[in-house]
Amino acid sequence: MNPVPSPPPAPGSRPRTRDLGIVVGPTPTGPLNALTDVPGVRVGHTTVRARPDVHSGVTAVVPDGVRPGAPVPAGVFAGNGYGKLVGSTQLAELGELETPVLLTATLSAFRVADALVGWVLEQPGCEGVLSLNPVVGECNDGHLSDIRSRPVREEHVRAALDGASAGPVAEGCVGAGTGTVALGFKAGIGTSSRTPEVAGRRFTVGALVQANFGGTLRVLGRTLDGSGPASETGSCMIVVATDAPLDARQLTRVARRAVFALARTGAAYSHGSGDYAIAFATRPGAAPPVADDTLSPLFEAVLDAVEEAVLNSLLAATTTTGHGGRTVPALPVDRLLTALADAPGAEGH
What we know:
Helix 4 packs across helix 5 (296-316).
């Protein structure tokens, strides 16, 4: 078996949250309602499938110009640390991100990290680099994919990095989300953005999630039971970016809010869940950090963006039959709309 990349689903092939009239929070979104609304941030996916057994891949979040010697300020938070977040200790210690952030499957994380090191060493300005800190997060896609085959290879990593773009971000069963499951339904990659006003200035904050966590789905106060794996399994990786001038300590505060936001969607935060967030700023040194007592609108924007990103990951995903003949259904839109029909605040909360 030699899995090869397959084309991602076309963006918009299933409705996003706002297409259904579900608006999370009052803050406006960016034009794409995606992580790539933050200037200087690109996203790339490689989807790796060999049906019926392999449903996996890799997703790359690439801040423009990031490299050893030219890091961006960053923070990290582990809500529950049952996971493998390669590079997290140095990121926490120094408050700096010096490589793109890659997301993949649990047993592929180490191959992906090695491939990322090789790619970075080849970039202009890295000719003399003797040490670097690759950052790679993971979720366990073993319910639907033959995770022991470790199907994500160097060529898949390089394709995701080299193909990363600032345009619309494909969601659902794509890249690192190809085989993931959340809240009882097929999930995957989801994204959203907000443009809060902080200290009298308008900034952008975006979130991207690799959703694979347990619990009972909650949307605008209504719950929907799914038939996917129990809440004891799963994880969620969250990447947040902003163009607001924040330092590493403030970005750690942002990362905490990103993990807190999962509770809004019904996350169980179980023993076996690895719930992590990385937050970074794209304009280091452009301006002094804003004052802490002005950050509440940005915190609220992060909570809303992560909540909506999780919902988008579910709505974009499609029913998948995978390894061992196991099938996980997509979130049924008609059932969701029926549950919300008499919910107060279905146009926002």
